[in-house]
Specification:
Layout (H helix, E strand, L loop, with lengths): L1 E5 L2 E4 L10 H10 L8 E2 L15 E4 L8 E4 L7 E2 L1 E2 L6 E2 L48 E5 L1 H4 L4 H11 L10 H14 L1 E3 L2 E3 L13 E5 L8
Length: about 220
C-alpha cells in the first residue's frame, strides 16, 4: 500500500487487490468460463461452507452481479468448494492464493489437481498519478510505501500520526531522518515481546508478517518547478 502524508493529511495512493475486493470480477470470469473451475469449484459465494444436509434448504448467497446477499435453494452444485473462501487475510482464491494481481505464477495450480489459477490473477496494474509540481511540499511531506506487514496492524491514520509526531523531532537537514522514521514504523508494527507474544499499542497483536517500509520525501519535487 502507498499513502502520501501532506500537511498531516492522508492521501491514499493505492488500494488492495484481494479475493474480497475483486470478488465480482473473479466470479464473473468463472461464470463466463466455467471450465476454469474444473468441476470442483462453484463461482457462488456463501457465508460459510455448504453441507450436504442443507441441500433443498435456503441459504444466503452472492453472485457476480450482486453487492448484497439474497436467498437461494441449495442444490448439489452448491456443495462444490467456493471459488473465494475465507475472510480478511484468510481469504483465498481456489483455497490456494490470497492475492488477485501479480506477474508470473503461470504454472500455479490448485493443490493435487490440474486446475490452473493463473486465469484469475490479473497482471493489469493500478496507476495513480500525483503531480509533484501542483503542491509546495515541506520536509515532513512524504510518500509511505510498505508491505502488508505494516498495514495489517496499523491504520493509515495511525501511520500518519506516527510520522507527523516523529519527523518534527529530527533535524530537517539530516538525510537519515526518513530512514529513522521508517525504522520507527517497523518497530511499531512488530511491537514488543511479552508473555503472550508480540504486542503493539492497546495490547493488540503485533505483525507476524514481513515488514518493509519506504519513507520517500516529496520536498525534492519542489526543485523541479
Amino acid at each position: 500500500r502507498a499513502i502520501i502524508i501532506r500537511n498531516g493529511e492522508v492521501i491514499p495512493m493505492s488500494s488492495e487487490f484481494t479475493p474480497e475486493t475483486e470478488r465480482q470480477r473473479l466470479q464473473y470470469l468463472a461464470y463466463m468460463q466455467p471450465h476454469l473451475l474444473g468441476n470442483e469449484f462453484t463461482h457462488l459465494e456463501f457465508p460459510r461452507r455448504v453441507q450436504r444436509k442443507e441441500v433443498g434448504k435456503r441459504m444466503l448467497y452472492r453472485d457476480f452481479n450482486m453487492t448484497g446477499w439474497a436467498y437461494k435453494t441449495i442444490e448439489e452444485d452448491d456443495l462444490k468448494f467456493p471459488l473465494i473462501y475465507g475472510e480478511g487475510k484468510k481469504a483465498r482464491v481456489m483455497a490456494t492464493i490470497g492475492v488477485t494481481r501479480g506477474l508470473g505464477d503461470h504454472d500455479l495450480k490448485v493443490h493435487d489437481s490440474n486446475i490452473y489459477i493463473k486465469p484469475f490473477l490479473s497482471s493489469s496494474p493500478e496507476v495513480r498519478v500525483y503531480d509533484l509540481l501542483q503542491y509546495e511540499h515541506g520536509p515532513d511531506d512524504v510518500l509511505i510505501l510498505a508491505t502488508d506487514g505494516l498495514w495489517d496492524v496499523l491504520l493509515n491514520e495511525e501511520v500518519a500520526e506516527a510520522v507527523t509526531n516523529f519527523l518534527p523531532n529530527c533535524d530537517p537537514d539530516d538525510p537519515h531522518r526518513y530512514t529513522l522514521v521508517a525504522q520507527d514504523l517497523v518497530m511499531r508494527a512488530r511491537g514488543v515481546l511479552k508473555d503472550r507474544g508480540w504486542r503493539i499499542s492497546n495490547d493488540r497483536l503485533g505483525s507476524g508478517d514481513d515488514i518493509s517500509v519506504y519513507v520517500i520525501p516529496l520536498i525534492h519535487g519542489n526543485k523541479q518547478s
